[in-house]
Design brief:
Layout lengths: L9 E11 L2 E12 L3 H11 L4 H18 L6 H18 L5
Antiparallel strand pairs: 1-2
């Protein structure tokens, strides 16, 4: 993916709702932030990986949330091996980008 190393702090709000018997119910919601432009990343994933827009958005959001959560627990041995593989995968996706 192309590199956009804009380090501007961004804040996102994620909300998950469930529809049960035609009624919308909140499941959970939370905020998270970082310097990544999720919209730009999804657009690049859609183009670079030939993904449908919906899947590119799911992919980018999933990757960012997973990385964001796992890096909060660097000493958790249950996450250690997977986190290392996730970081390697991210580096491959980013190429020469140092963001």
């Amino acid at each position: 993916m192309d590199c956009n190393c804009n380090k501007e702090k961004r804040s996102y709000h994620v909300g998950v709702t469930e529809v049960v018997d035609g009624k919308i119910q909140d499941v959970f919601c939370f905020n998270f932030g970082g310097h990544h432009d999720l919209a730009a990343m999804a657009a690049r994933a859609e183009k670079d990986f030939d993904m449908k827009q919906k899947h590119a958005r799911q992919f980018v959001l999933g990757m960012r949330l997973l990385h964001h959560a796992l890096k909060k627990y660097p000493d958790n041995e249950k996450f250690a091996a997977f986190f290392a593989q996730l970081n390697d995968f991210k580096k491959q996706l980013k190429g020469d980008c140092k963001c």
